[in-house]
Amino acid sequence: MSPRTAAARPLIVxxxxxxxxxxxxxxxxxxxxDGGVPHMSGGAERRRIARRLVAxxxxxxxxxxxxxxxxxxxxxxxxxxxxxxxxxxxxxxMRSTEIAAEEIDFRPGDYLVPKRRYSAxxxxxxxxxxxxxxxxxxxxxxxxxxxxxxxxxVDAHQGDxxxxxxxxxxxxxxxxxxxxxxxAMEYLQSxxxxxxxxxxxxxxxxxPAPYVPCSVGEERA
Length: 221
Description:
By secondary structure, the protein is α/β, with parallel strands linked by helices. The chain has one domain: Isochorismatase-like (Rossmann fold), CATH 3.40.50. Strands 3-2-1-4-5-6 form a six-stranded parallel sheet, sandwiched between helices. The radius of gyration is 17 Å and the shape is globular. It starts with a helix and ends in a 16-residue tail after the last helix. About 35% of the residues lie in helices and about 20% in strands.
């Protein structure tokens, strides 16, 4: 398939889900709290955009999935994560590790996927959740563009999901790394890079089919 053909696909294919990657109180977003990681500026604006996307998704009946990086306090599950530029971050029990609930409208009972690694698919139940929801298109937001968002995108791509990344609602470790990651994701799926205005319009015009949860032994469409 040529890039031109792929780009002609609609923004939403099948049932979408909005995925918010690591919108947490601290860590990558608040320097000086539990070490954190390098990050580009503009976090407050990205959170404002994320809240608008969450509201639009709820109104349209689009599933909203919050992803949270979290590590044990003895650091046993960091693995190679601290071998590069990142310091200790996102430890259990720290307020800075919590989802930034008030800012992005995370509510009790919302879908929450905790993760120990960069990709939201690695060692989590995200795949089970997406299959249960019959999702085909993932709309990715959050951070870091060049780390957790990128690696989640790659795993979703390899799992045959349609992937969109909201380029004004993701932030990288640096502006250069952010831009490079967006180019890399666009390379994998033409038309992956989208602006929040496009997503809001797509949600407003999306008409969900009646949702019937899969029963035991049922073949999913």
